[in-house]
Amino acid sequence: MKTIAILILSTLLSLNQKAISQENPGHQISGTISDSISKKPLDYITVSLKSANNAAIKATLSKADGSFRFQGLKPSKYSITIVAIGYKPKNIAVDLSDSTMKSKDFGAIYISARSNDLKEVMVIGDKPIMTQEIDRISYNLQADPDSKGSNVLEMMRKVPLLSLDAEDNIQLKGDKNYKILINGKPSSMVERNPKDILRSMPASSIEKIEVITTPPAKYDAEGLTGIINIITNKKVDNGYNGSLNLNERFPVGGPGIGGSFTVKQGKFGTSGYGGGSLHNSPSTENSNSRLTFDNTNATNLNQSGSKKSESRSAYFGSELSYEIDSLNLISGQFNINGNQSEGDSHQQSLMTGNNETIESYQLENTNEGKGNGIDAALNYQLGFKSNKNRLLTFSYRFFTYSNRQFNSLDVTEPVRYFNPDYKQNNKGSSSEQTFQIDYAYPVKKLTIEAGVKGILRNNKSDFRYDSLNTDGFFELDPQRSNKFNNRQSILGAYNSYQYNLKDWGFKGGLRLEQTLIDVEFISSASQLQKNYLNLVPSISLNRKLKNMSSLTLGYSYKIKRPGIYQLNPFVDRSNPNFESSGNPNLRPASASGIELKYSRFKKGSINVGISYEFYSKLIMPISTFNEVTKITRTTFGNTGKARVIGSNVNVNYPLTTKWNVTINAQAGHGKVSALVNNTLVENDGLMYYVSGSTGYKLEKGLRVNVNMHMNGPNLTLQGTSNSYIGSSIGVNKDLVKDKLSFSVTANNPFTKYRYYISETNGTNFRQESTNQNFFRTYSGSLNYRFGKLKSSVKKSKKGIINDDAGGGMGG
């Protein structure tokens, strides 16, 4: 693979050199960029050449002496745009339409420094790929050509600190304990199973992805490793704009459609995004094996089978705003989503011991899944004449989602296996209401924020188990069925401060949260009540250095409340030898961490970070083997402790104006321990992730992209998983400049299947599961943009941000 990538890039370079050598000098524009105060020339400054109608033509970087040159131009009217970090942008009109004027040398072009403000640092050109603030880093999907032919899930491989595991589950710093927000707010579409929605969402409909590893105090204290905030497109002023994407993927996947739009007329503005897709998975193989170590009754279990599935998902989100006057603004949000799935699986099972068959059977499993979610919010924002950045906001939000899982299991050819056919049905849901008041008060370089919030949340589950009786009818098994309610009342208050000096930036605050939990088992008439109080500090410090670089130091304390999937006592018996369930007795987990980051934005960008994080009362899956029933039971425990020492590197570097390289790497050493059946279990190991991509821009709007990624093992309390390597090659073609583009991609063209192997070890057993997945896929995408980009739809600067909810629901 490496050799092929080198050959491709070498060929592209030779084509580029040939094109340059044949270029006609023609008309030209030149100049030298210098600082307006020191008069010193500035190197690596981005200079863009645009046509009279503002269409981009070329871009270059100033040399060490500050000079730049555009040549081979046709007689016409042009403009050049100069963009540099720490300087005000500058636009200059150039008229070369007169045939007697073949060149224009501006000589020294002076640019003025902007006021030193550490709120945000931008990288490269009119559309920077990355921006950094004190407590977060953002990846601009619109500036990455790969976004035209990829979905949001795929693009997350390139975002600093994010990765995907072997089953395409999103990880933040190698961990799954995070919170996903849409436009700074929780959304039902990413609560249940975010990868299904994000896989159907075209990246072209998304503006950027923010990774917040040190959440400020105004955010709920949730997400042990941080927050992923997905910002959708919405830029227009008294007009409209939007995008539409059609895509197809095979043999795994299917057709999809998605897009976004924005409309603004006078005081009214609205924006929306939506889409849908089919995702079909052809038949693949899987296996399970387990060895038990009982000296008198050791067993050996071997299972093999196959599975296939089909799923459909759709989503729609919108925001509306009405500006009553310059001081009063009303805004609202509405999101709706749904999905359905069907699947079939076949399994052969054989358990032996003492050289004889203990039991064997064959199992046919027909499964169905269905889920939907709705959330809506209303905000009122009040400004003040004395200072328009002084804001008081009142917000209300309603949020609900549900999920249903159904399995019908038929047993054939049983040998010493006496369980009848059975059906299991699990209906789960979560709903909440949120009331919130926020106040922002800026005083010169100091910004003070404060707020209070109340969340009323209700998690429910209704699960039942029906078995086939001797009369040939299915009847309810009351011992394996129940109804479960988990009510949470969360009261929070925060106070935060942000202060900016010439070369320093500070952001810090405190958040106090009270959690009241009331658990009720309706069928068994039992009840459980709990009460937690958490004081959550956060602090970030930024120091601006020379050469467009900076250091950022951050500390945060975070908690994670268990979600319905982890709390739900429903026992999944879709595999009779392996059962799994939630644990209604779980408590919130907590984590504290410190991180140091170095960033440099000159010509390209480099971000390097080191961190130390400690977790207590960690919620983790725990597996035990029952020697009487011969069943492995997995549930969630709350006794875990862990520490992770980690590092990360992200580099985005333009080798030339047409060729760029991006590297995203993470590595960490983790150690985890917990009590399993009153026995201390420990595990430690190295975890890593490396992603590299390169793109080369050819003539006539053609671009070639090559991507590779390597996932290391995933560490768990009782085991680990295997590592793997993936790759992709894609081509993007602009059919109509900045309007219509087409992309084709070959993912993992040299490997048909990927095998995900996970190991689990206990005091009296060792087991391994292997899942085969299609790895080689092909995709095509057609992306259309319309309208004009000017400025954003006005919306409340404050609003409800519930990032405290636990994990999603299974199904």
Structure in words:
This protein is mainly beta and 811 residues long. 4% of the residues lie in helices and 65% in strands. It contains four helices and 43 strands. It has a 22-stranded antiparallel beta barrel. The protein is globular and about 100 Å long. The two termini are 37 Å apart.
Total beta-strand segments: 43
Number of helices: 4
Please give the radius of gyration in angstroms: 29 Å
- SS content category: mainly beta
Notable characteristics:
disordered C terminus, disordered N terminus, mainly beta, six-stranded mixed beta sheet, single chain, 811 residues, 22-stranded antiparallel β-barrel
In short:
This protein has 811 residues and is mainly beta. The chain contains four helices and 43 strands.
Architecture blueprint of SSEs:
Layout: H1 2-21, E1 27-35, E2 46-51, E3 56-61, E4 67-73, E5 77-83, E6 90-95, E7 103-111, E8 121-122, E9 130-132, E10 136-140, H2 152-155, E11 162-164, E12 170-172, E13 179-182, H3 194-200, E14 206-212, E15 227-232, E16 239-250, E17 256-265, E18 268-292, E19 300-325, E20 328-353, E21 356-384, E22 387-415, E23 422-443, E24 446-468, E25 474-476, E26 482-500, E27 504-521, E28 526-545, E29 549-560, H4 564-567, E30 571-575, E31 578-581, E32 589-602, E33 604-626, E34 631-654, E35 659-676, E36 679-697, E37 702-711, E38 719-721, E39 724-736, E40 740-747, E41 753-761, E42 765-774, E43 777-787
Parallel strand pairs: 1-7, 13-15, 31-34
Antiparallel strand pairs: 1-4, 2-3, 2-5, 5-6, 8-9, 9-10, 10-14, 11-12, 14-15, 16-17, 16-43, 17-18, 18-19, 18-42, 19-20, 20-21, 21-22, 22-23, 23-24, 24-25, 24-26, 26-27, 27-28, 28-29, 29-32, 30-31, 32-33, 33-34, 34-35, 35-36, 36-37, 37-39, 38-41, 39-40, 40-43, 41-42
